[in-house]
């Protein structure tokens, strides 16, 4: 059975797509092209939208991007209103999405664990007999 999407879900997806486009095309900032909108959550009454984003760059640049997003909030909201037909455009709240960092950390830990588990196999002994492989 197909998943049923609510109107709020469809509005959130539209906001996500349109915001990504507006940020890349309209924001005049060097780091704007490095911003990715990862998710948007809209309240039931459409008065607020939590916008989650990631940024590829240094922590210093990340702070600059967070400031940019806050300063551009009104502009972005007005640009969205041009393309989305709602009685009232939701107020935008930007939050940095840490899930990508958590995923990278978990991936690194898994890589470390797998390299540690492979290390005894590389010492040159056959585990089944305990004798050196070379002779």
Automatic annotation (TrEMBL):
- Which InterPro entries does the protein's record reference? KH_dom-like_a/b, RbfA, RbfA_dom_sf, Ribosome-bd_factorA_CS
Q: Where are the transmembrane segments?
A: none
Keywords (A to Z) from UniProt: Cytoplasm, Ribosome biogenesis
Renumbered to this chain, region (Disordered) spans 113-135
**Where does this one sit in the cell?**
Cytoplasm
Report the Pfam families cross-referenced here.
Answer: RBFA (PF02033)
Q: Does the keyword Cytoplasm apply?
A: yes
Q: Which residues form the signal peptide?
A: none
Instruction: Give yes or no: UniProt keyword Cytoplasm.
Output: yes
Molecular function as annotated in GO:
ribosomal small subunit binding
Q: GO cellular component terms?
A: cytosol
One Gene Ontology BP term is: maturation of SSU-rRNA
Q: Which family does it belong to?
A: Belongs to the RbfA family.
Provide the function of this protein.
Answer: One of several proteins that assist in the late maturation steps of the functional core of the 30S ribosomal subunit. Associates with free 30S ribosomal subunits (but not with 30S subunits that are part of 70S ribosomes or polysomes). Required for efficient processing of 16S rRNA. May interact with the 5'-terminal helix region of 16S rRNA.
Q: How does the annotation summarize its subunit structure?
A: Monomer. Binds 30S ribosomal subunits, but not 50S ribosomal subunits or 70S ribosomes.
Protein name (Swiss-Prot/TrEMBL): Ribosome-binding factor A
Native organism is Iodobacter fluviatilis
Q: What gene is it encoded by?
A: rbfA
